[in-house]
Amino acid sequence: MSLLFILLTIITTLIFLTAVLKISPFISFILVTILAGILLGMPLGNIVQSFQKGIGDMLGSILVTLTAGAMLGKLVAESGAATVIADKIIAVCGKKYLQWGLLLTGLIIGIPLFYNVGFVLIIPIVFTLSYRYKLPAVYVGIPMLAALSVAHSLLPPHPSPASLVGTFQASMIKTFLYGIAVAVPAIILAGPVFARTLRHIQPQGELPLVEHTVAAHSLPGVFNSIFSALLPVFLLLTTFLLSFIIENKQVIQVLSFIKEPSVLMLLSLLVVSITLGTQQRTSMKHIMRTYEAGIKDIAMILLIIGASGGLKQVLIDSEASIVLAGYFQSLQINPLILGWLIAAIIRLCLGSATVAGLTAAGIIAPLMPHISADPNLMILAIGAGSIFCSHVNDTGFWMFKEYFNVSIKDTFLSWTIMESIVSVAGLAGVLLLSIWL
Q1: Comparing C-alpha atoms, which of 365, 316, 370, 320 is closest to residue 339?
Q2: Which helix (H) or strand (E) is 158 found in, with range?
Q3: How many CB atoms are located within 10 Å of the residue 256 CB?
């Protein structure tokens, strides 16, 4: 049985279980992982070990980050800070240009912030605007999420593109500037332009993380609201800039420690517990109840993310990704398109944009001395390919579906198409730049 047929069977089965039979994605991932291991010839004991390792690795790296972000987001919503920020956005941009304001906000937040953290932080703002102005949540949120996706995949100092800069020995500054040139038209197409077709998509019930009524006198100030909601951004930017200024090794170690996502979010949560909690005369008992409610909102999401990590690990341990990528090494094709294609294929099969990007980079990097391609543009091509066609094996797909409470069909019609537009438009931008440079 060929590897391509096996991978197609795995993806088709996962889609069938979740979309047709309506089985919980968590259970579906477990069943499909077992099927994948058997079809790929792994011993049964190794399948279990790989699945457990995948869950541990996935949740171990993001559990604190996601839960702290969910708690912070819940407090931002219940304290009224999200309402204050939403009002400020409307005042500056107006309802007519709301999506453009959200797009810019998403891009600014996304450059320094990890995607999952940025996703959780912007949800209260999106939902508050949706309720207040009676606009579909998907219509409001897609531009900001498109900007977050672009920053995650294309713009250093975000971890994935920054790591590719090292792999290809490229220029961080050039990659960033080229990335901005590619990103702007991509997010305009995938954001405000594409969102016009999504006004009909409605949630299947109530949206989470939003408190509908907050007493006017208890609302925090504008500065406090923005500072608290974006505190992780400010902390990361500050530590990033100080790391270039300060030469003391001990101080640099402290800054590196603070920049760790889990530490960053935990520090932010402690500060926000004061600025939006006790400082607003809210009891600590009520704050903790708010945090408990925030964790409950993402409980199923955490299970799905963990199970998807198990499937990813089985595919990696079976070396399916390496064999699959090897199929494309001998193809006669534009190097930039080849880099995008390898990343896109691995993304389709594994779901992880980071794994897709790093795997594609590992294949292309040894070929760079023998091909005529700008390393900075190759990074962008691979980054664009790594977010192509997000579907049921991607954690972002399920985060979008669960948070926005839409059907799987509507998730495909909104989230999946948005990610694909960003990916294809990104490749087109890279190819245009390659002509001019």
Answers
A1: 365
A2: none
A3: 12
Counting the structural domains of the chain, the total is 1
Q: CA 242 to CA 256: how far, in whole Å?
A: 10
**Spatial separation of the C-alpha atoms in residues 54 and 307, rounded to whole Å:** 8
The domain of 361 spans 3-436
DSSP state of 208: S
State the DSSP code for 111: T
CB atoms within 10 A of CB 73: 29
Say how far apart CA 311 and CA 29 lie, in whole Å: 7
Look-up: residue for tokens 């951004």? 233
Q: Give yes or no for a contact between 155 and 399, defined as CB atoms under 8 angstroms apart.
A: no
Q: Which residue has the tokens 């999506």?
A: 99
Per-residue exposure over 168-181, b if at least 16 CB sit within 10 Å of its own CB, e if not: bebbeebbbebbeb
Q: How far apart are CA 108 and CA 244, in angstroms?
A: 20
Sequence length of the chain is 437
Q: d(Cα 359, Cα 361) in Å, to the nearest integer? A: 5
Which token pair is 407?
């059907």
pTM of the model: 0.68
Instruction: Report, in angstroms and rounded to the nearest whole number, the Rg of the chain calculated over CA atoms.
Output: 21
Q: Write the pLDDT tens digit of every residue in 331-381.
A: 678 889 988 998 898 888 777 787 788 777 877 876 777 777 899 999 999
Q: How many CB atoms lie within 10 A of CB 217?
A: 5
User: Which residue type, as a one-letter code, is found at position 128?
Assistant: T
Report pLDDT digits (tens) over 177-211.
899 899 999 999 999 999 999 999 988 877 765 54
